[in-house]
Amino acid sequence: MTDLLPAPTATEPTMPAPTAAAVAALSDGELDLRRHMLAERLLSDVIGLPWELVHDEAEAWGLEVSHRLDARLVVLLDDPATCPHGNPIPGTARPADQSDAVTADEAPLGRVEVVRITEELEEDGPALRLLAGAGLRPGRRAELVSRGDDGLVVVGATADTVLPARVTSDLYVRVLSAPTA
Questions:
Q1: Cβ of 124: how many Cβ atoms within 10 Å?
Q2: Cα separation of 14 and 73, whole Å?
Q3: By C-alpha distance, which of 119, 133, 95 is closest to 172?
Q4: CB distance 95 to 80 below 8 Å
Q5: Among 23, 55, 109, 134, which has the minimal tally of Cβ within 10 Å of its Cβ?
Q6: Does the pTM exceed 0.85?
Q7: Where are the beta strands (DSSP E) in 49-157?
Q8: pLDDT tens, 115-151?
Q9: What gap in Å lies between CA 174 and CA 91, rounded to an integer?
Q10: In whole angstroms, what is the distance from residue 128 CA to residue 155 CA?
Q11: Longest dimension (CA), the chain
């Protein structure tokens, strides 16, 4: 496990200059959100906790991330652009371009790539389990097949599912192709 971290030095860890400048400009609320998201990344990327559990675990952990730990996490995690759920981490030097993302309920039927789920949906355990069961997490591809009274029928990365409106309104996707008429 110790080979995962760069060798410690006698000096305090420092962030790359662009990240440090961006972090210095954050409000207290943004700083708390940033540190929560870095804790989620640690839990998913290093510890290997399943994607659908990291939000609740980071909350339960109640981790108070100091400036020193924040700097160390930036180095360890290579200054991630997003949390495991695809939401942009405030203060990163490498912001994710999500300008083309639309909610799944607004996207045309066809092939899509999952971009992110909202912070609100991260707190909905059953919805996270539904998305995880179908392999619908950021970076994965799926196909939006049809819309009905029960919801949006999706051929997911690992299983097919029907997503209710409360999920599709908080699931952001990038349209890859729409069916031709």
A1: 17
A2: 10
A3: 119
A4: no
A5: 109
A6: no
A7: 102-103, 110-117, 141-148, 151-155
A8: 999 999 999 999 999 999 999 999 999 999 999 999 9
A9: 24
A10: 16
A11: 65
Q: Which of 133, 134, 147, 136 is nearest to 170 (CA)?
A: 136
* Nearest one of 165, 167, 179, 91 to 125, comparing CA atoms: 167
Q: Alpha helix locations (H) across 25-170?
A: 28-41, 54-61, 67-77, 119-122, 125-133, 165-168
Q: Which tokens hold the place of 73?
A: 């996490």
CA within 13 Å, CB half, 156: 17
Q: Which domains can be identified in the chain, with CATH numbers? A: 2-77 (1.10.60.10), 102-177 (2.30.30.90)
Separation of alpha carbons 161 and 66, rounded Å: 41
Between CA 91 and CA 35 the distance in angstroms is: 10
Residue type, 3: D
